[in-house]
């Protein structure tokens, strides 16, 4: 199997490489020092398995696994960790492969043998149970096979199209695979639903305007953003009657 | 090796207050005078209150002061007999002292006083004195017993917190270090050897410490060992600037203060930054105080708030309070990009 090693600590990467090379059955195709690098390399090298450290700066292991899943042929994932009581319970419960540091050769072989391709829902479950990161800090867009990470705190709103969800953010707009419902559940504390197909960051709402026909429209805090899309027309962010009281309540809360 | 632990040991063993100290004598005088007032008021006869109070005060103060003197003499010995025994001994001694003095007073007034001061039979007088004094003494002893129990509980609690903290090197750190050593064993055996030695020293400092305070020199050495181990793991991501040359190295500091703070700075700060960062430790002497601060950068997008940080700081705060009372402060300053802990405490140097 082709293996990609991801760990922010050089000695930990060395150790895994030593063990894998000892066995001879596996080939280490690359090493990455953080989640971002891992996603890039995984896209280029197409590994069968990614050995992922859980505690890493920036993108942690669980979030990286999330994004790896959005690949067309997602690699299998084995987590490595020194000590994460809660995560380990969650892994056991969801039959996810993991190895504990210091890594043992037999344990590594076993984990590689049972490495699994993980579904989003399984990872969501793990994140919730382990309390590592209940929310992702990025959403992942794909442009012609390239992976693009958009920090959630730069997102203004999500707009559901027929098939995809469009993300309007500080630096433009992109399409992502997540469903609006799952985004709403995941980011419930910072985003609010304004109508059936739109989810907006509470912090992006500048003001609410009443239009002549009696509807309520969201004016974004950063108005330049509206005209960012290439076709020039900004989205009309109307609040449906059903969601109006909820939006107002969220705005009062700040 | 320092004088400080002996002081603490003495404090934990002291059940009885220091009866020879001026403060204690003053409190005893006040209580005795209050008792005299109560007794005089109880037997109030119109027109004679002040003269009665004067006589009563003289008698009660005489009993109280001589009783205190007796306790002052026997305290070191009584203290050695054990907690409850010490109080029983004091009670008995005081009761005997009161009885003897009552007899003495009766005889003396019989010889010198022209007016009858004690208008009671011999036996009646002795009995009254004995009854009143035993009741008052019993109440006082009960009060002292309870307050000493209370002090002891507090100290035990503090002590147990110290040991809990001392055992609290993060398992994360231990396993990561083992993994690093396993890796180095092949690639760089010499460094692996040094890492094992460092880890052993660090564990010894963490597990073996019985003393509450240590010298700054030793405390900084433990922190430096810790830094060396973490450096193997984190490489160039970890930078620490020590600006502590001004500190008197013989000064005392509660043990395991700097190292846990450094551990926090790394675990909650440096480790979560892709490019790492610099931990700044600076210390200086300001008058009779020492000021030490530890500052680390924090990741701005870091949303996982862990409680571990606050726990270590509040633990240090408790130990500083125990060691210095209100003379020490532990402050946390937090901004978007930085986290820092500021310690200010009196500079006590070792006698040696």
Question: Would you summarize the structure shown here?
Answer:
The complex is a heterodimer of chains A (254) and B (352). By secondary structure, chain A is α/β, with parallel strands linked by helices.
Q: Tell me the β content of chain A.
A: 25-35%
CA-based shape of chain A? elongated
- Largest sheet composition of chain A: 5 strands, parallel
Output the structural class of chain B: alpha+beta
CATH top level label of the largest domain in chain B: Alpha Beta
Secondary structure tally: strands of chain A? 15
Tally of domains of chain A: 2
Radius of gyration of chain A: 21 Å
CATH topology of the largest domain in chain B: Heat Shock Protein 90
Q: Which descriptors would you attach to this protein?
A:
heterodimer; A: about 250 residues; alpha/beta; OB fold (Dihydrolipoamide Acetyltransferase, E2P); 2 domains; B: about 350 residues; alpha+beta; Heat Shock Protein 90; 5-stranded mixed β-sheet; two-stranded antiparallel sheet; 10 helices; elongated; disordered N terminus
Describe this structure in words.
The complex is a heterodimer of chains A (254) and B (352). Chain A is α/β, with parallel strands linked by helices and 254 residues long. Chain A folds into two domains: 2-130, Response regulator (Rossmann fold), CATH 3.40.50; 138-253, OB fold (Dihydrolipoamide Acetyltransferase, E2P) (Beta Barrel), CATH 2.40.50. Helices cover 32% and strands 30% of the residues of chain A. Chain A contains eight helices and 15 strands. Chain A has helices at 10-23, 35-45, 61-68, 85-93, 105-113, 120-130, 180-186, 241-253, and strands at 2-6, 27-32, 49-53, 76-81, 98-100, 138-143, 146-151, 155-160, 165-169, 172-176, 191-195, 198-201, 205-210, 216-220, 238-239. In chain A, the strands form four sheets. Chain A has a five-stranded parallel sheet, with helices on both faces. In chain A, helix 4 links the parallel strand 4 and strand 5. In chain A, helix 2 (35-45) runs parallel beside helix 3 (61-68). The longest helix of chain A has 14 residues, at 10-23. The termini of chain A are far apart. With 352 residues, chain B is of the alpha+beta class. Chain B folds into two domains: 4-163, no CATH class; 167-346, Heat Shock Protein 90, CATH 3.30.565. Chain B is built from ten helices and seven strands. In chain B, the strands form two sheets. In chain B, strands 2-4-5-7-6 form a five-stranded mixed sheet, covered by helices on one side. In chain B, helix 8 packs parallel to helix 9 (258-269). Chain B starts with a helix and ends in a 6-residue tail after the last strand. The model of chain B is unreliable at 1-12 (pLDDT under 50). Chains A and B meet through helix 1 of A and helix 6 and helix 8 of B.
